[in-house]
Amino acid sequence: MMRILFHFRFMVLLFILPLTVGAQTNSLRKYKRNEFSFKSTVMRNAEGEMTAVNVGAYVGKNLIDQFVTELPGTPMKTTADAVGKISEPDVNGDGFPDVTIYLGYYGSHPNDSYYEALIWDEEHGCFLLADGYKDLADPMIDEETHLITTNLRDGPEARVTDYYGWQHNKIRHLRSESVRIDDPNPISYYGLLDLPLCRYNAKLDGRISVIIAFQENNDNTVAGYIYYPKAKHPAPILIIGSVSHQNDADYYNLSEYQSDGLITGDISIKHQLIDGWDHQVEGTWTNPKTRKEMKLTDVIFNREVPRWFTKSLFAPENSGKIDRFIKKETIKEK
After folding, report:
1. Which of 145-154, 202-211, 239-248, 317-326 is least confident?
2. Over the stretch 60-81, which tens digit does the pLDDT of each residue have?
3. Cβ atoms of residues 132 and 158 within 8 Å
4. Is residue 164 within 8 Å of 148, Cβ to Cβ?
């Protein structure tokens, strides 16, 4: 009985192994990118409808790995013949060709084509399924910056462009830009670099409207602006601080600086993403002199760039502008 059970477990292991492991488990040697070729197969259900694309990664005649991606629906007949088409652009800008797989056009709006991507991992010599790429509508790769962009109409008068970058094999939403189609002098946001932007439209104690927008660099330094739209003379006010990441939540601590360096507010924000889509935000604004505290209420989070935030404070030409404030923040934390 024990011998039969052993053989059963061994056969089950052989059955599931090719579907669950990466390229390197099939060989002790490390593969090179130029050794790979690919073959795609469209999978269908009992009614003959397209349901998924199966892509095999080969070295010579040997199947090294395979990736199955479910289609988002039933593609339009006009593009059905192209479903599963493989291209090999450098999607993430690391100098190595990746793989994109066409998933079809779905017809709810002009930019409604979808793709899957396999990202080459040079360190381990294998491909990784991109996390989030297949959710982007008609993604375009900027050959200069290697950012991924998508474009959608926002009603009859505006266009929204979303910018995405990469964290290893995961898509990271950086910012959204809304531009009026008939605007003769559209604002340029190219000075924002490839850093993610956070924007919070909120009220202080349900009364005072504020817009808080900032970027975070790789050193966990945060820099941006707070804006009071109903102030007598509204203008963006510099905010500098830091962020820590704990238990799937981001904790931001920032100070509001006047042009003379005077701190006129301390801002604390806790931002947690629940189930991958539900942004839960809570926070306070505190007067550093009186210690009066006001809660952030009616908070709406997005990544839309305000019209008054056109250049990153982390751009080289702005480094001197914020260095002295960063030093003050370091002293405060100590």
Report:
1. 317-326
2. 999 999 999 999 999 999 999 9
3. no
4. yes
